[in-house]
Structures are given as structure tokens and as C-alpha cells.
Amino acid sequence: MSKVIVFSIFILASIAIGVISGVSNLPGEWYQSLNKPFFNPPSWIFAPVWTVLYGMIGAALAATWYDENNGRRLIVFAIQGFLNILWSPAFFGMQNPALGLAIIIPMLVFILLFIAMSWRPNRWAALLFVPYALWVAFATMLNLSIVMLN
After folding, report:
1. Range of 101's domain?
2. Tens digits of per-residue pLDDT, 64-105?
3. Surface-to-core class of residue 29, CB atoms within 10 Å of its CB (0-12 exposed, 13-18 middle, 19+ buried)
């Protein structure tokens, strides 16, 4: 299978997982009723940002997939991915910002670990994760603020 096809499959699968997670755990009235910090972005921004990020996550995975000695990085990638999938059902589905915070903090740690582990063997994969790390750091601060305000 050509690399273009593999990259396309990984990117589309990553976006699809993100869309399914988002559609399955819509914020709804409960989220609207929460006290939020002044830096809470408008609701419309989340879907496009996450769509781009999921595409970059899929590309980083595809790039890592072809690397030699990629086992540890793939495990770290899988852990952050699993935590990513858990966050929306915890925060929105269970309406539990504290549980969301307990998931997003280690998620951010594993994202940063993936970047650090990928920096030398695959700088491109690491750089693809930098915007993701920045957004999740912002989301962590938002999640923490919501816990504190509510």
C-alpha cells in the first residue's frame, strides 16, 4: 500500500473518531449553564479546531508508523489517544468537569511525552503534535477554570 493511501487512511480515521466522539457528547444546555472563565472561546470554534488537530494527529501517527524502533512512541500515542477519546464522555456525557480534568492532565503529559520522544527520530511527527499540545494545554486551563468556578 502506498504511503499516500496509508496517510489518508490514518488522517481520515483520526478525524472520523473525533467527529464521532464530538457528536456523541454534545455540550448541550448543561454546559451552557456552567460558569465559564473570561477566556472561554465561542462554541463555534471547537469543531473546526478539533477537525484540523485530528487531521494532524492522524498524520503524526502515519509518520510514526513508518519509523524504525517506533514501539514506545506508538504506545505513548495510543495512551494519549485513549485519554482523548475518554475526555468528552467524561466531561460532557457524564457532566463531570472534575473527571474531565483527571483525564485531560495525563493526556497532556502523554502528548508532551510523544513530542519529546519523537523530536529526534521524527521531527515532523513531533511538530505536528505541537499545536495539539498547545490546544490541550489551553483546554486543560479551561477545564480547571470550570471546575473552580462551579
Report:
1. 3-149
2. 999 999 999 999 999 999 999 999 999 999 999 999 999 999
3. exposed
Name the nearest CA neighbour of 20 among 64, 45, 41, 51: 51
Q: What is the DSSP string of 67-132?
A: STT-HHHHHHHHHHHHHHHHHHIIIIITT-HHHHHHHHHHHHHHHHHHHHHHTTT-HHHHHHHHHH
Low-confidence ranges of the chain (pLDDT < 70): none
Three cell numbers, residue 6: 496509508
Tell me if residue 149 falls in helix, strand or coil: helix
Q: How many domains does the chain have?
A: 1
56/14 Cα distance (integer angstroms):
9
Provide Rg for the chain, Cα atoms.
16
Contact between 64 and 73 under an 8 Å Cβ cutoff? The reply is: yes
